[in-house]
TrEMBL record, chain A:
Alphabetical keyword list: Membrane, Transmembrane, Transmembrane helix
Organism of origin: Micromonospora noduli
Entries under Pfam families matching the protein: ABC2_membrane_2 (PF12679)
Claim: Metal-binding is one of the keywords in the record: no
Residues that span the membrane, as ranges: 119-141, 162-192, 212-233, 240-259, 309-331
Name recorded for this polypeptide: Uncharacterized protein
GO molecular function terms listed in the Swiss-Prot or TrEMBL record: ABC-type transporter activity
GO cellular component: plasma membrane
Presence of keyword Transmembrane: yes
Amino acid sequence: MNLVRAELERLSARRFVQLMVVLLVLAFAVTAATTLAGSHKPNADEMSSARAQAAEARRDLEATHQECLARQSGTLPADTDRYFPSDCSEIDPIRQDRLPIPADYLPGVFNFAEQAQPLLYFLIAFLVLFGFLVGASYIGADLTSGGVVNLLLWRPRRLTVLAAKLGTLLGAVLVLALLASVVYLATFWVIGQAAGLPGRLDGDFWRSLGAVHGRGLVLVLLASALGFAIATLGRHTSAALGALAAYAVVWELGARLVLEIVDARKSDLFMLSSHIGAWLNGGARFYDEQLCRGSTDFPYCEGFYTVTWLPALLVLLAITGGLTAAAFAVFRRRDLI
Amino acid sequence: MSAVIEIEGLRKTFHSLRSGRRVAVDGFDLLVEAGQVHGFLGPNGSGKTTTLRALLGLVRADSGRMTVLGEPSPELLPRVAGQVGAIVESPQFFGNFTGYRTLRLLARAGGVPVSRVDEVLDLVGLDDRGDERVKGYSLGMKQRLAVASALLKDPRLLILDEPANGLDPAGIREMRDLMRSLAANGVTVLVSSHILGEIQLICDHVTIISRGRRVATGRVDEVLAGHDRHELLVRVAEPERAVELLHAAELTAVVDGGALVVSGVSDPTVVSRVLGEQGLWVGELTPLRPDLESVFLELTGAYEHSSVPRQVGDSSLPQGEAVIDLDRGVDA
């Protein structure tokens, strides 16, 4: 416990951590201020007009669907000027993810229910970067400066010292991420109430937002552990940054290109970004034209495949867990010079 | 006396793609007994710091046996870590922290009462600078802070690697007094240094390492006595004639400057008698005692062109393996 307290003091005293927190607050303040400045509470006329436009848009969707069905069944002659999908269910309003709502026709009005999720994604992206960089610099700087050696002279238990550092990092990042996201969402909720629209905040909304939030926090912790592990393995903060840059360029860009050239099937499965997206969104669909080659379903083969959140999480856990275990194993035997 | 530090046959080799295989410590032995202030001498790259790092579990020895306060190290070092204060090279501290906060942090991590921080700041002479940021400290002040961190635990054993680094003459003197005071209070001190005069003043025992091997060990006076060539500095009116007379008496003498250096003489009265009988009266007759510096240079410099330095107590040594210098990154 003493070790964790001491580590917490060291972590919070790091200039880099303080800088990242300031950047977080700044980004948060700028986003909130611009949202507030660009939004207003709609008056009755605006609301009435928006409701009418949304209702008309829904009617248009229904009419288009009905027309599609009619032309498919031959009740109406084919119209070459208008495009209709071969499968009319694709434009069936009932099967759409969302239907037009009045908020879509209220320009300059912030709608919390509509915007909360994209705002949360932005925060999670920042916190993932924060966790990775802070995790890497926390151990990297200590290894370079001799801080770890100094600590080991006091507590000559390598695994305990490293575990205390990682545990402190993850705990601190989790608390900061929780606090930041609660304050962040609460601020935009207040903006929605006072200078925009709160939107439809029913149980489904909060469940969906809570799920994204929870998955986002897991991603932040995984990124923190990953930065920590790579910097431990490479002895420097720059090792983590270099590994990240090298992975992005060599694998996500280079290897993706090569996989496309050699017509590899389901090449997105080899990309970490696919699994991050699938985990964060609860699943992701990817297109691969290779899937339809030689398919007996042609021309009905869509060429899509899905990655669900569970395998995506397992991939992320395996990579982070593997690198973290390797970092502990290497640190246990490494000469600290 | 009981052994506080025992090292037997310590061997450590570093491997790197660029430099290949480098033997840092080659079968090194060290014995430090309770109550000693033990000097650990060696040129840069001789293996001092590697030895201390291995003893403290910071590098893994290839072979050898080490104990600290009776416990095998590094396996059971945690059992006695609370009684061992150590600094290895110059530890880096957070520049943004004050000296006080730096020590408080270490005290918390090590389960030491925070009240001890003020005591050690006072001991190293930083009591009035403890509330200043470390980045504003001079090298000497940082070194004092490092020593203060080693003293926090009120240790039974203090291991100091080059504690006088960066200290001015007054600081060196204070450090010397501090070590004497600690030793007087029963703290065993192992201090590595290349400031030989300091070691001679502070330490009662010394071990000299060269190219990873022990080349001398024992009480400081015994080590010096072992290298006493029984030389005398003699001043007379006619040095050249005096040399002839001494040669005739089967003594070895050379003219050095305006004086004579007579060697191999156990009884100085022989010189004054031989010269006096021929009417040459001795103006000065001073025994030339070796100091630690000359012994150090003899022991470490004499082996510059030899592949393997002789280890004290060894009658034969393993052959066929060249010991080469370390780079400063490994053992500065």
